[in-house]
Amino acid sequence: MLNLIFYAFAALTLGGSLAVLITRNVMYSAFFLLLSLIGVAALFVLASADLLAVAQVMIYVGGVLVLVIFGVMLTHKPKPETTTGPQAARPNYILTQHRAWLWPLLVAAGLFTAFYSLISRIHFSLFEHRAPFQTSVDTIGKQLMTEYIIPFEIAGILLLAALVGATYLSSQGDRTNNQ
Amino acid sequence: MLPIILLSVFGIVLLFMGFLKSKVLLLPATLVFILAALATTFMDWGKTYLYFQNMLLTNNLAILFTTIVLLSAFMVVALSNSFIEDEQAQPAEYYALLLFSLVGAIMMISFENLIMLFVGVEILSVAMYVLAGSDKHSPRSNEAALKYFLMGAFATGIMLFGIALLYGATGTFVVSGIKSYVYTNAYGVSLLLYMGIILLLIGMLFKVSAAPFHFWTPDVYDGTPGLFTAFMSTVVKTAGFAALFRVLSVSFVGVYSFWWGTLAALTCLTLLIGNVTAVYQTSFKRMMAYSSISHAGYLLIGLTALGTQTKQALVFYSLAYSLATISAFGVLLVVSRQRQDTNGVNENFDAFNGLARQNPLLGFVMAVSMLSLAGIPLTAGFWGKFMIFTTAADKGIYWILVFAVLMSTVGIYYYFRVIIAMYFREGAAEPVKVAPFYRYVLIAATILTLVLGLAPGLLEGLV
Amino acid sequence: MIIVETRPALSLRIYIHLPFTILLALPIFLALSSGFVVVGVYLERKISAFIQDRLGPMEVGKWGLLQLFADLLKLLQKEDIVPAAADRKLFLLAPSVIFASVFAGFAVMPLTPDLQGSATAVGVFYLMAIVSFDVVGILMAGWGSNNKYSLLGAMRSVAQIVSYEIPLGLTILCVVMICQSLNLQEISFQQGIYTYEPNYLFGIRALGIDVTDWGGIFSWNILRNPFLLIAYVIFFIATLAEANRAPFDLPEGESEIVAGFNTEYSGMRFALLFLSEYAMMLLVAFLGAILFLGSWNTPLPNIGPVRLADWTSGSPGTVWGNLTGAFWLLTKALAAIMVQMWVRWTLPRLRVDQLMFLCWKVLTPIGIVLLLISGVWRLLMI
């Protein structure tokens, strides 16, 4: 039963990723990415990392994916040839021009072989310890507040720097606004 | 580890000081803050401490690297008086970001846990992405920021992947924990470890702009406002090499035979690309970008020939390089701003034409810094190169030594182009005006370069 | 010490009921959220009529009670139109995505002490993720319609939902800090007479007044930390924005952009979007009741020998306990929805800049201060 669920979500992840690559419509790629991200989140749950799974949905679907979609929306779109008549009434497509497949295929195949041989040969020390499902919230919370308190706090400085930088770069630093 | 906390707090204080109408206080305040951090750094001198549950480790080496970084930052900030006059600039934000990036740099220098390395690299990089694009109205600056961001994000991703694999192999993020793993499993080290080392190295080499991961460097250095280029090429590089040294000399010294060949090849490639390409540049700033690549190559020699002398050589070389680079950029900044051509600031070699006649001081500062970068005796750069080459000789890697000496003769060619332009060409008649404080900083950097060149033993025995 | 001993017992009980509750909770919530539309729309019309001094629907059935069925019949008969220039796949899929994402939120809602879809330990966090999931569906609808009003509406909706997640998250964090749990059922248990930890008046242990036995309103979170009352107000405002309800209905502002992201939808697909809007209202009303207003616990306290709390809430595991639990939770949620409707028909729509001002310069700073206070308050509680 558990295996079945695992394979279903693994298939979802892989299928989503494949569809991202195969479709020419960039917007579809963005939405297929959603499937793949949800699949990964589900796999996290099966790996007993529930907090990580929800964080995955929150950060990637709620944050990154929305940014990606906005990015696609802001992409320059060639004007349709006709503005009137039946030809004008066509959906909002943003298509990729990139149709080369040989090199990507070679690179992907090479990477796949490398990773496959790597993963099949290494020894995972945690593999033998089959733990029953348990929530990771308490552990993560305690670790973040004790052992990893400094990285946790310093990440605040990182975010602050990013925030200051973002506001600085996007602010209208013109003379007209400065008075 | 007070400097990390102090600099974080000071950065926030500076942001609040940005609310003030007057910008006059910002520059001296920043200088005082950096000095305060520098003073607290030395509180741990002579001792080895682990801080915050094995997150950071301070020892004399870390303190020396921190000193170099803070000193470079101090001089860069001291050269930044132009912000006060520029009404578009927002110095509070710049200085705050600089202080934050110093937090990141210190973390990169004294990390004990790879998580701290990652967070440190991120803080430093994020601040630098913004500062690279701080000239918002210049397309070149925007391009530099975007390129740096994309490349840097990619490199960080690779590095993070490497750290994850290292964790998978060893079950720990702690540098010394990885070391003990390598020693206890000397014959059956997990493949993941090798993969992790490679990816971590790629990420870090990206940050220090070593070939073949250097291709972002010329455009980014060229487009970034000069002051921040100086910061980037000194602080980022020093911190990056400190981090590389730490991780290689502690964690991976047990598998030296695995990585040294790769690193040696990359070293030669970096030296070759940096030096040869620099010859063809017409822009001084681009030349400095390639020169910084080539200096990354020299520093890499020290890592390739990892031995007892390496840390001393790295510290000395970083210091000599930082001093020379900052004084070179200091002169460039003031000259390019006052000798503008039709395209705005003139950062080409011809901006320096006849500089020595109108401004003997600036000419001398520039000449000393070029000589130091080229590695001419009586300057700090010579002893830096000497020490680096000694490490290679000690290890018996003579071919890399020969190659490096060959490349440094190429270097002499392009560094001397500036000197020739300053001393033997006719240029603009009116002298360049230099603010007094600006002049003192340049003089101090030059004197330090000369003193280290005359008495290289000053730093001996500190690490 | 007490916490350590009792938590395993709680989780054990949840595990025993797990297969049963999942099977039961799903149809119940499906029926609840779709059935709520029937009640909700009628309520909305009648309340708006009352506020505007009208009668509202009166023709179909007694007091217009059957009006909604007439509406549904109309929507069912309508043609399912897909505009010629729309991106057909996205356009058709979007309403389902929106509804699915809202409905997924009910998976972790405790309806009674025993009835809960999934007793996951990350319930609250999951709900916040679900709220942000909604955005993707809205963007899908806006882009797929290929209509400038739809796209504008979708953009506004996304900007609003993403921004208001910050104060929302801050206020939820306040509760989580007080309760020390992300599990909604555990948060519920803490706010009544069946709690495993002693409750003190206003949460201050130093006062020495043990209200564990009083129960009722005294053990609700808004009284365990009185500042959570302010937090609830912020929570309520933020959820209005999350649900795209007036006065934050810019995404579908009729007077500006026709109907926002659902301009092009008709027939049953429009009904599905409508359904998700009401389901979202119900979801956030539930969440507010669970986090702040004592969940399925009775508001009536035990006063000396008058055991009002004991009489009005059965012990967990019994049928009476489940019935009273569901009754109180639904009552609280419906009350919150009434307020939502009241707000809708009394306040005018905000401008975009006012919307952002309210979020970033008013609600977020207050939320951060409340978070700090909650942290201190938690120290007073133990």
UniProtKB/TrEMBL annotation, chain A:
InterPro entries: NADH_UbQ/plastoQ_OxRdtase_su6, Nuo/plastoQ_OxRdtase_6_NuoJ. One of its GO terms (molecular function) is NADH dehydrogenase (ubiquinone) activity. GO terms for cellular component: plasma membrane. Its main location: membrane. The keyword Transmembrane applies. The chain crosses the membrane at residues 29-47, 54-74, 100-119, 148-169. NDH-1 shuttles electrons from NADH, via FMN and iron-sulfur (Fe-S) centers, to quinones in the respiratory chain. Couples the redox reaction to proton translocation (for every two electrons transferred, four hydrogen ions are translocated across the cytoplasmic membrane), and thus conserves the redox energy in a proton gradient. This is NADH-quinone oxidoreductase subunit J. The lineage of its organism: Bacteria, Pseudomonadati, Bacteroidota, Cytophagia, Cytophagales.
From TrEMBL, chain B:
One of its GO terms (cellular component) is endomembrane system. Residues 113-408 form the NADH:quinone oxidoreductase/Mrp antiporter transmembrane domain. GO terms for biological process: ATP synthesis coupled electron transport. GO terms for molecular function: NADH dehydrogenase (quinone) (non-electrogenic) activity; NADH dehydrogenase (ubiquinone) activity; quinone binding. It catalyses: a quinone + NADH + 5 H(+)(in) = a quinol + NAD(+) + 4 H(+)(out). Its main location: membrane. Pfam families: Proton_antipo_M. The keyword Translocase applies. Its EC number is 7.1.1.-. Keywords: Cell membrane, Membrane, NAD, Quinone, Translocase, Transmembrane, Transmembrane helix, Transport. It is found in: Cell membrane; Endomembrane system; Membrane. It is a multi-pass membrane protein. InterPro entries: NADH-Q_OxRdtase_suN/2, ND/Mrp_TM. NDH-1 shuttles electrons from NADH, via FMN and iron-sulfur (Fe-S) centers, to quinones in the respiratory chain. The immediate electron acceptor for the enzyme in this species is believed to be a menaquinone. Couples the redox reaction to proton translocation (for every two electrons transferred, four hydrogen ions are translocated across the cytoplasmic membrane), and thus conserves the redox energy in a proton gradient. NDH-1 is composed of 14 different subunits. Subunits NuoA, H, J, K, L, M, N constitute the membrane sector of the complex. NCBIfam families: NDH_I_N (TIGR01770). Belongs to the complex I subunit 2 family. This is NADH-quinone oxidoreductase subunit N. It comes from Arsenicibacter rosenii.
